[in-house]
Design goal:
alpha/beta; Rossmann fold; 6-stranded mixed β-sheet; 12 strands; 32% helix
Length: 258
């Protein structure tokens, strides 16, 4: 188990307030979707949670200890991170990319053994990558490459996963595949925080939705508690029809009302 807590976190930069009095907790066994328009402060919130950005005020703790007090290796063993941009500087084998998830444990991608090899093998299986193990990453489709990055994160065996737009630029089928993988990771005891722009997918897979606008958390709760036409108008300035049936949630935007 692991838990990150943000208490009254504020971030100011160049005279602008990027985050204002943010309070949130991320823990194992829960999938949280962070949603809101561009510029709402979602990535800033995640960077504070990962100690990649220091708050101007407030506190961030990991298991009740100031997260800034952890070494990068200690943090990497507790929290795995998938940033928005995930470039690969050179074409390398799929298996070697996944093995990078064991870097925090001192593993060499060329000589995996013991727990490191077992973790990589399981991540490859979970993400259906065994048949691509020796393929170069520059030959993969967008959906295949997204699974590779997920496997790298899973191989770390960290209690928490933070993913900034993990399904961006993917077609609907691959969006569902990636979210199903993250959902399975959580169902097996992990915890995940993901930034999403597709509200229906967020509601389908997440246990909790954190809604943000203008650097503030507007609402925090389950889809049944927080997802409504009123909330869509308040956060995204659109009129929408929100419905739920046996097949899940549907959100139809009928008019922009900014």
């Amino acid at each position: 188990m692991a838990e990150i807590k943000l208490n009254n976190v504020c971030v100011e930069a160049s005279g602008a307030t990027l985050l204002h009095n943010a309070n949130a907790s991320f823990r194992s066994s829960e999938l949280i979707a962070l949603i809101g328009p561009n510029g709402a402060g979602k990535t800033t919130l995640l960077k504070c949670a990962l100690a990649l950005m220091a708050p101007s005020a407030g506190t961030v703790t990991l298991d009740s200890r100031a997260i800034a007090d952890f070494s990068p290796i200690e943090r990497a063993r507790l929290v795995s991170y998938l940033p928005q941009s995930r470039p690969l500087a050179w074409p390398i084998r799929v298996r070697d990319v996944v093995a990078l998830g064991r870097y925090a444990y001192g593993a060499s991608t060329a000589k995996l053994k013991g727990e490191d090899a077992a973790a990589v093998n399981q991540a490859m299986r979970d993400c259906n990558l065994d048949h691509l193990a020796d393929r170069r990453t520059d030959t993969l489709s967008g959906g295949e490459l997204a699974r590779v990055h997920c496997a790298r994160a899973f191989a770390a065996k960290a209690p928490l996963l933070i993913a900034d737009e993990p399904v961006a630029s993917l077609d609907p089928s691959h969006q569902f595949q990636i979210m199903a993988l993250i959902r399975a990771y959580v169902d097996n005891g992990g915890g995940a925080v993901v930034v999403l722009h597709d509200i229906a997918i967020a509601a389908r897979f997440a246990d909790r939705l954190i809604w943000m606008k203008d650097g503030e958390i507007n609402a925090n709760g389950g889809p049944d508690e927080t997802l409504s036409a009123t909330q869509m108008k308040q956060i995204f300035a659109v009129s929408a029809v929100v419905a739920k049936d046996q097949n899940g949630w549907s959100i139809t935007v009928t008019d922009g009302c900014a």
